[in-house]
Specification:
With about 270 residues, this protein is of the alpha/beta class. It contains eight helices and twelve strands. Helices cover about 40% and strands about 25% of the residues. It has a ten-stranded mixed beta sheet, sandwiched between helices. A two-stranded antiparallel ribbon has the order 5-6.
Length: about 270
Amino acid sequence: MSTKSYIVPFDFTPVTLNALKHGMRMAQKSSAQLVLLHLVNSESKVENKRKELEQIIEAENTNGNQVKLIADVRVGSIFEDINKVALEYGSFKIIMGTHGALGMQKIFGSNAIKVVKSTELPIYIVQESSEYENIRNIIVPIDTSKESIQIIPHAADMAFLYGAKVIVVGELQTDETASRQMQTRIKIIEDKFQSLGVDASIKLFKQSGSYAKKIVAFARENDAQLIATAYHSESLIPVLDTFLQSLIMNEEKIPVITIQSKEVSFAYY
């Protein structure tokens, strides 16, 4: 059986150092190895950057690190090659910092979405000052679409890993058809979490104001350490790029785990 691995795009900046800390805790809990991936724009830079990355790994190992860390430096682009690298390692997850720089490539909230679009893997995203504490509560926003509930297995995985509780949030629907769709999604989610043995509850907001802001405020009020949401830009509900970007760059600095959902037929779910 191959070793479970996570990919951490790394560029030596504080935000990617923080992503590494998050990744090390996650990897230790799941007996996984971490691949520190640094991409450069020229072959001439590979060797020097590999030495720098190995120094980071040596320092972590000196501090009593129990996670296997692998240095991988190659020529490429974070937006084009991260999925290829992840497939090479058979990775289960990408752990990434926003506002970092990979080579000459700035990874801001909007550009982080480009990485989400480039892979089918779940991506765990942190800001520079996102605390890497134990995850006790996870907020899972959904909407009326079938695509939005594709985050459920990944939220459940994180809940199992940390022994966390899950609160699924959505918006009350005034339209009769949309209301039925929401109730259908909630029933599927309740059944799924119950079958997995995950402690989950449901909270619906009134339709007023920014959905993203309500999610972040609710996360703060309920002491959440993670927001788990699917990305599906084709939906007409507020899950466009700006919605995910608002969650990724939330002012509470709460980490976000997201995955690009697949378009599903009416027969699915």
